[in-house]
Specification:
The protein is mostly helical and 141 residues long. The chain has three helices and no strands. The protein starts with a helix and ends with a helix.
Length: 141
């Protein structure tokens, strides 16, 4: 299972893809007649006979598709919000996070000291074992 950041990145990429697919669908399946008053700052859409890729849906089908696309986008955003809520450190202050890092660094130093002591003890045990084996070899000779 991927980590939370990878899941979050995947969800954001999926959301971007959903945005693109939604805009693509809306631009290619709308009817040329507008229900909004003309806006002088926005150029009008070309008539449908000049856009061969436009396949207008019936108003009922188009409205249903709009609701479904919007619902899908809202669900994906909720999923992203859930993942961001699970990220560590969001509820903690910077000072508490720095303090926790210092604690972890100290634990790491202690563990490293224990490791070094164990390596040293292993080396001492190996030397004693070699001495004993050497003595046993001399006694047999």
């Amino acid at each position: 299972m991927p980590d939370r950041l990878t899941q979050l990145q995947d969800c954001l990429e999926q959301l971007a893809t959903q945005f693109y697919a939604s805009l693509r669908y809306l631009s290619s399946h709308h009817s040329s007649s507008s229900t909004l008053p003309p806006n002088p700052h926005v150029p009008p859409f070309p008539p449908s006979d000049t856009n061969p890729h436009q396949r207008p849906d019936t108003p009922t089908t188009f409205a249903g598709a709009q609701r479904e696309l919007a619902s899908d986008l809202v669900e994906k955003v909720k999923e992203i919000e859930g993942l961001t809520g699970m990220l560590p450190g969001l509820e903690k202050s910077e000072e508490s996070q720095v303090a926790r890092l210092r604690e972890l660094e100290e634990e790491l130093r202690m563990a490293e000291n224990e490791r070094k002591a164990a390596v040293s003890e292993r080396a001492e045990c190996l030397e004693r074992l070699e001495e004993v084996i050497g003595r046993v070899g001399r006694v047999k000779s």
